[in-house]
Write a structure and sequence with these properties.
The chain is mainly α. It has helices at about 10-25, 30-40, 45-70, 75-95, 100-115, 115-130, 130-145, 145-160, 165-185, 205-240, 245-255, 255-270, 275-295, 300-330, 335-360, 365-390. It has two domains: about 10-190, Growth Hormone, Chain: A (Up-down Bundle), CATH 1.20.1250.20; about 205-390, Growth Hormone, Chain: A (Up-down Bundle), CATH 1.20.1250.20.
């Protein structure tokens, strides 16, 4: 069964709020970290650890987020995220010391757990059931422009007003724009998808157990891809520099990551309805593995490596929302999204530090080979999951 018809204006509005949510949390320190260090004298490692703390908090609250969306719908959760993100950003702006700064990141973590992709996907799946696939793809397509929009905006604000004022401007945007959009455009509580009301018979126990098994395997795949993307997001330029490329060229090559993500999402948007979402997940893991492998080879394959890897990362986020919906159906979809988010967000919180340690102790090639092995493991698990679907 499907949910209600999807108003695409709502999807566009949610894409806008996702741009701001990602740009003012996950991508915030890419531009603000150095100005914060220069202004405060706090250690750079401590400044960057704020994001890890936020992701950790987001992971810990994600199961509860899914339960709330399933019970009350996504509107109150996403609206709350706008307020909490504004409070956290305001806290960053006012932080007199490192302790207050880290507390503010913990608050931002609550906003991330209730306002990033997992909450948005849970909201769309809860409201629109099996029809949510194209909506999820469209939201990720729009949100792919987050760094493209927010990084230059952050730089402009810092240049003219400073990093604290930039945080206050972003807090105002969450209260003035995102909160209003979430209250006015996000669907309220709708009846649960029809199959949620079907009384299960004893013969369905095997199917339920198989669904739980598939959920665990999917959690492993999503956690592995999250670990890879978290390390690559921090170390991509370093990996390219290690190949002997000059800094300006390395930055230009790394910048190809964003367009490649958006390009592959456009392909998924256009043709995704013709194949099962499990193939999106398989393609994501495969592209990530090929891209990392090419990057380990180095010049002259760096540009194809970044483009290929970027394509894999781009559709991995789509698969994160669409595969659970296709495998397990819309019943309790929001709850499952919350459970799936827990390990992957915690992995995202810890992986950058682990990747940096591995890079320092073993070098870039060994680090890339380790990431390549993780990508191959994710690909193997995705192929096993595809085979399990046929049983």
């Amino acid at each position: 069964m499907t949910g209600e018809a999807i108003p695409w204006a709502t999807v566009g509005a949610l894409g806008l709020t996702q741009i701001l949510a990602w740009g003012t949390t996950y991508y915030l320190l890419a531009v603000l970290a150095e100005p914060i260090a220069a202004d405060t004298g706090w250690p750079m490692t401590a400044i960057v650890s704020g994001l890890s703390l936020g992701l950790l908090v987001a992971g810990l609250i994600s199961p509860r987020m899914g339960q709330i969306v399933e019970r009350y719908g996504g509107r109150p959760v996403l609206a709350t995220s706008s307020v909490v993100l504004a409070v956290g950003l305001g806290g960053l702006a006012a932080s007199p010391n490192l302790t207050a700064y880290l507390i503010s990141w913990a608050v931002l973590g609550i906003g991330m757990g209730t306002g990033l992709y997992d909450a948005a996907f849970a909201t769309l799946g809860r409201a629109y059931g099996a029809d949510a696939r194209r909506a999820i793809t469209a939201v990720t397509l729009l949100a792919g422009f987050s760094s493209t929009i927010c990084w230059p905006l952050s730089g402009l604000l810092i240049e003219h007003y400073g990093w604290r004022a930039a945080c206050l401007v972003y807090a105002a945007l969450h209260l003035g724009i995102c909160l209003a959009v979430h209250l006015c455009c996000v669907p309220g509580l709708s009846p649960a998808p029809a199959d949620a009301t079907v009384v299960e018979q004893p013969v369905q126990s095997t199917r339920r157990e198989k669904g739980e098994r598939d959920l665990y395997v999917l959690a492993i795949i999503l956690t592995l891809t999250a670990m890879i993307s978290a390390v690559m997001s921090v170390q991509l330029v370093a990996f390219i520099l290690a190949a002997g490329v000059e800094l300006t060229t390395a930055v230009a090559l790394a910048a190809m990551l964003g367009p490649s993500q958006v390009g592959v999402r456009l392909i998924e948007m256009a043709f995704g309805r013709h194949y099962h979402p499990i193939w999106t997940l398989i393609s994501a893991a495969g592209l990530m593995a090929v891209g990392i492998g090419l990057l380990a080879i180095g010049v002259p394959l760096i540009a194809p490596a970044v483009i290929t890897y970027g394509g894999g990362v781009g559709i991995a986020w789509i698969a994160r929302g669409t595969v659970p919906l296709a495998l397990l159906g819309p019943t309790d979809y929001a709850v499952r999204m919350g459970r799936l988010a827990l390990p992957s967000l915690i992995a995202q919180a810890l992986s950058p530090s682990l990747g940096t340690l591995l890079l320092a102790t073993s070098g870039p090639r060994a680090t890339l080979l380790a990431l390549f092995a993780l990508a191959l493991l994710a690909l193997a698990a995705a192929l096993w999951l595809r085979r399990a679907m046929l049983e």
